[in-house]
Design a protein that fits this description.
Layout (H helix, E strand, L loop, with lengths): L1 H34 L9 E6 L2 E2 L3 E3 L5 E2 L1 H12 L4 E6 L2 H9 L5 E2 L14 E2 L7 E6 L15 E5 L3 H9 L4 E5 L2 H10 L4 E5 H11 L2 E7 L8 E2 L4 H16 L2 H9 L15
Parallel strand pairs: 1-5, 1-6, 9-10, 9-11
Antiparallel strand pairs: 2-3, 3-4, 7-13, 8-11, 8-12
Bound molecules: Deoxyfructosylglutamine (SNW).
The site of Deoxyfructosylglutamine has 20 residues, from loops.
């Protein structure tokens, strides 16, 4: 009799521990979500697709570290959502959005303008920059404005808004496509092309470095830059947006803007406001 009782006890213990084990599975899943609420590739880290040659937005310094307005602003936003490890990885511009959509990166950060077409591929955070697109040229090129672009060779980086705009509006101009800004600027400096169409702040930087001039500045306010993330992650987007607004409201955005874009007009909508 005694041994039968022991057997029953053993069996009960077995049943209890098996059912406890199966109960623990959903708990484990819930804990996983709690450790990684934004569904990041590596919990606690943000892996970011960016550009190494878009100064002063995103570029690598002499020691190969990523810096610039977008890099510092995104890093500040990341810290506000509790993520201290942010790794930027250089890409060709045309590769950024597809690889963010595929889940190879947690975000794409490179002064990427928010447009309806791009919003079919990725989700965007709230906007954080609104400025101009610039036709940059050499003093001797014969290009002095949009009209004189006709019959000239114009560099664009593949996949940019400049490429789309040029295809639509500069129909008499020969477009020459490049993978990145450095290649486009080299072509302008060595005379292979007559002008380069790029973001205003990047153009300003190259103008100062190489004695180039602005032939035209074209507003791109309808496509403010945003952080790109994979579709279908509303918790991540909501956290980024909340942090972006907090950074604008406490003056951090303004401080970074003045540091990286000295003398440029500041879009009012991103400055601290009352109420
Ligand atoms: O549409 C502008 C925006 O108004 C602001 O000036 C920052 O740049 C833009 O987002 C345009 N940027 C280009 C694009 O989204 C090129 C980006 C790049 O070369 N890094 O295609």
């Amino acid at each position: 009799m005694k041994s039968q009782k022991t057997l029953i006890k053993l069996a009960t213990a077995l049943i209890v521990s098996v059912s406890l084990f199966s109960l623990s599975a959903p708990f484990a899943l819930a804990a996983g979500k709690q450790d990684n609420p934004y569904g990041l590739i590596e919990p606690g880290e943000l892996r970011v697709a960016s550009l190494g040659d878009a100064k002063p937005y995103t570029f690598t310094d002499a020691s190969g570290n990523f810096t610039g307005f977008d890099v510092e602003f995104f890093t500040d936003v990341a810290h506000r959502i509790g993520i201290n490890k942010v790794s930027f990885i250089g890409q060709d511009f045309a590769g950024i959005l597809p690889s963010v959509a595929n889940g190879r990166y947690d975000a794409g950060v490179a002064a990427i303008g928010i447009t309806p077409a791009r919003s079919k591929v990725v989700d965007f955070s709230d906007g954080y920059l609104a400025g101009y697109l610039t036709v940059l040229t050499r003093k001797d090129s014969g290009v002095t404005d949009v009209k004189t672009l006709a019959k000239h060779r114009l560099a664009v980086v593949q996949g940019t808004l400049q490429e789309n705009y040029a295809v639509e509006h500069f129909t008499q101009t020969d477009l020459v496509r490049f993978p990145d800004n450095n290649a486009a600027i080299s072509a302008l400096n060595n005379g292979t092309v007559d002008a380069d169409f790029l973001d205003y702040e990047a153009a300003k930087d190259y103008a100062a470095r190489y004695g180039l001039v602005h032939a035209a500045d074209i507003p791109s306010f309808d496509a403010p830059a945003g952080f790109a993330i994979a579709k279908g992650n509303p918790a991540f987007k909501a956290a980024l947006d909340k942090a972006i607004q907090a950074s604008m409201q406490d003056g951090t955005w303004k401080k970074l803007y003045q540091k990286w874009f000295p003398g440029s007009p500041m879009p009012k909508q991103y400055l601290p406001h009352e109420g």
